[in-house]
Design a protein that fits this description.
Blueprint (H helix, E strand, L loop, with lengths): L5 H18 L3 H4 L15 H5 L5 E2 L6 E5 L10 E16 L4 E14 L6 E13 L2 E14 L6 E13 L6 E7 L8
Parallel strand pairs: 1-8
Antiparallel strand pairs: 2-3, 3-4, 4-7, 5-6, 5-8
């Protein structure tokens, strides 16, 4: 006569194997089903690790700005929204002819003020690449951020994948990202 303890142990083992297969990142390989083909791993080469990629910095006064209702500049009760940039990053590729293309990314948030009303906000974000006194790239973007809740901060991510310039031989390149509200408005 078969042992009655065998059936519950077999069922428990099946459940454990099933859960282990669900937890595995390789579900086909866990129970040896499928064709067993694994995706090719993409490896980073040593040249890619050592490649020059100038870092992105924020100039003083360009990491934040306040937007006021008409005629309310400087009045805290007339703040429509405040915006800030918290993080910047980049990736770089260099072509054989010495041209560099960068993808510069900016992460920030918009905080509604007392004079806020829901809608889209245009964020004036400028990306600039310099070499000494020479400007190699400069582009002002109007990045739209939709803000619907007047009580919570809205996070945003902006990127400019088309930052292109000829890389100077001495590599003293500086990359800046930040808000650029343009010239002061006439009163």
């Amino acid at each position: 006569m078969p042992d009655r303890r065998f059936l519950p142990l077999a069922a428990l083992s099946g459940i454990i194997l099933g859960v282990a297969g669900c937890q595995s990142g390789d579900s086909a390989g866990a129970l040896a089903v499928g064709d067993g083909a694994k995706p090719a791993e993409q490896k980073v080469t040593e040249a890619e690790l050592r490649a020059y990629c100038p870092r992105v910095t924020l100039r003083d006064g360009t990491a934040y700005f306040n937007n006021y209702a008409k005629g309310g500049d400087g009045d805290a009760t007339k703040v429509v929204h405040q915006a800030s940039i918290g993080e910047v990053t980049r990736t770089c590729t260099t072509s054989a002819d010495g041209a560099m293309t960068m993808n510069v990314a900016v992460a920030g948030r918009v905080v509604p003020g007392p004079a806020f009303s829901p809608g889209s906000i245009n964020m004036p974000i400028r990306i600039v690449v310099t070499h000494g006194d020479d400007v190699l790239y400069s582009q002002l973007h109007r990045h739209q951020v939709s803000v619907s809740d007047g009580s919570a901060a809205t996070q945003f991510v902006f990127n400019d994948p088309n930052v292109s310039f000829v890389l100077p031989a001495d590599r003293r390149v500086q990359v800046f990202a930040g808000y650029d509200e343009g010239p002061p408005k006439r009163q």
